[in-house]
C-alpha cells in the first residue's frame, strides 16, 4: 500500500479551452478572474491551489503546455517589476509576497501534445512517483458547506478507507451527458459509496439501465464533483490505455482509466458537503462570477 499521507496535488491546465474561445486564444481559462469572499480578483488557478493548500497539501504540480510555462511561472514565482510593485498598496505588496511563498510549493509540469485529460494526468507520473495524490480539475472552484474545505473532506475519507476516492454530487438526468457518472453500493447512506462502475458522459438511457443507485431519485444520478484522491496505480491504468491507443472522442480520457483502477483496487465515492463551480463554460463561468463570492462567504 502506498504512503497514507497525501502530500501532492496535480492540476492539469494544458487544455485549449475550446468552449471559451475566442477568449482563450489570448487568456488561458485557468487564468480567468474570479472574485473571492474577500472581494479579491484572482485567477481561477490560484483559487484551486489555495483549495489544495487548505487540505494540507505541500507540493502542487501544474501540468501546462510548453508554450505556457512562462506565464504560469510568472504568476507564482516572479514578483512584479520594482516600479510596478511600488505602485501597489501595502496590502497588495504583501499579497505579492504571499504568491511567491505559494510558488515555492509549485512545480510546473508539461504535456507536450494535447492528447486529452487522461494523458495530462499521466504526464505527472514521474513527479508524483509512488504516492497517492490529490487530483483537481483546472476549471472548477469549490465552497464547502462545513468548516472543512471540500478537498479536506475528500482527503479525510481517503485516510479512513485507504483506497482511491472520487468526490460525488447529484446531477439531474438532463445534464449527465456532460459529466462522469458512477454507480455502486452505499457504505454509509447518502455519504459514502463503494463504487462499482464509472462512465464518462453517459446517455440518459444508459444511465437509467446501468447507473441507478438506491435512494437516488429517478431523475438524478451520482456524478463526479471534481476532486479525486488516487493511488499511483492510476498511472499503470493510463499507460495501458495509451499503449493500446484507447481513445474517446479522439483523446485519452481519465474516466475509463478510473474504471480500470476501480476494478483492480476498489474505489470509494464520497458525496461532498459543498458546492462546485464550473468556470469552463460561458454561462457557467458567468454564474460563478455572480455566486462564488456570496456563497463562499456563508
Automatic annotation (TrEMBL):
Pfam families registered for this protein in UniProt: NTP_transferase
Family annotation (InterPro entries): GalU_uridylyltTrfase_bac/arc, NTP_transferase_dom, Nucleotide-diphossugar_trans
Domain of life where this protein originates: Bacteria
Coiled-coil intervals, chain numbering: none
Gene Ontology terms, MF aspect: UTP:glucose-1-phosphate uridylyltransferase activity
Gene Ontology biological process terms in this record: UDP-alpha-D-glucose metabolic process
Reactions accelerated catalytically: alpha-D-glucose 1-phosphate + UTP + H(+) = UDP-alpha-D-glucose + diphosphate
NAD among keywords: no
Alphabetical keyword list: Nucleotidyltransferase, Transferase
Enzyme class: transferase
Chain segments annotated as transmembrane: none
Name this protein carries in UniProt: UTP--glucose-1-phosphate uridylyltransferase
Species for this entry: Anabaenopsis circularis NIES-21
Amino acid at each position: 500500500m502506498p504512503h497514507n499521507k497525501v502530500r501532492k496535488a496535480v492540476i492539469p491546465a494544458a487544455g485549449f479551452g475550446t468552449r471559451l474561445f475566442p477568449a482563450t486564444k489570448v487568456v488561458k481559462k485557468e487564468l480567468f478572474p474570479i472574485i473571492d469572499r474577500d472581494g479579491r480578483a484572482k485567477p481561477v488557478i490560484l483559487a484551486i491551489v489555495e483549495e489544495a493548500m487548505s487540505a494540507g497539501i505541500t507540493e502542487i504540480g501544474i501540468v501546462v503546455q510548453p508554450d505556457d510555462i512562462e506565464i504560469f511561472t510568472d504568476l507564482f514565482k516572479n514578483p512584479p517589476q520594482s516600479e510596478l510593485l511600488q505602485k501597489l498598496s501595502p496590502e497588495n505588496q504583501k499579497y505579492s509576497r504571499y504568491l511567491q511563498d505559494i510558488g515555492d510549493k509549485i512545480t510546473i509540469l508539461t504535456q507536450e501534445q494535447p492528447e486529452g485529460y487522461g494523458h495530462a494526468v499521466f504526464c505527472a507520473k514521474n513527479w508524483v512517483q509512488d504516492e497517492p495524490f490529490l487530483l483537481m480539475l483546472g476549471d472548477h472552484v469549490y465552497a464547502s458547506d462545513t468548516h472543512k474545505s471540500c478537498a479536506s473532506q475528500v482527503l479525510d475519507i481517503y485516510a479512513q478507507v485507504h483506497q482511491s476516492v472520487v468526490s460525488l454530487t447529484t446531477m439531474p438526468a438532463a445534464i449527465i451527458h456532460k459529466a462522469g457518472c458512477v454507480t455502486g453500493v452505499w457504505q454509509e447512506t447518502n455519504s459514502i459509496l463503494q463504487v462499482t462502475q464509472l462512465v464518462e458522459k453517459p446517455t440518459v438511457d444508459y444511465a437509467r439501465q446501468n447507473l441507478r443507485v438506491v435512494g437516488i431519485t429517478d431523475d438524478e444520478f451520482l456524478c463526479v464533483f471534481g476532486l479525486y484522491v488516487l493511488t499511483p496505480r492510476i498511472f499503470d491504468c493510463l499507460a495501458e490505455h495509451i499503449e493500446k491507443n484507447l481513445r474517446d472522442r479522439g483523446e485519452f480520457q481519465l474516466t475509463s482509466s478510473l474504471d480500470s483502477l476501480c476494478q483492480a483496487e476498489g474505489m470509494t465515492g464520497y458525496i461532498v458537503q459543498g458546492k462546485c463551480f464550473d468556470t469552463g463554460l460561458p454561462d457557467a463561468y458567468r454564474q460563478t462570477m455572480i455566486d462564488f463570492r456570496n456563497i463562499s462567504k456563508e
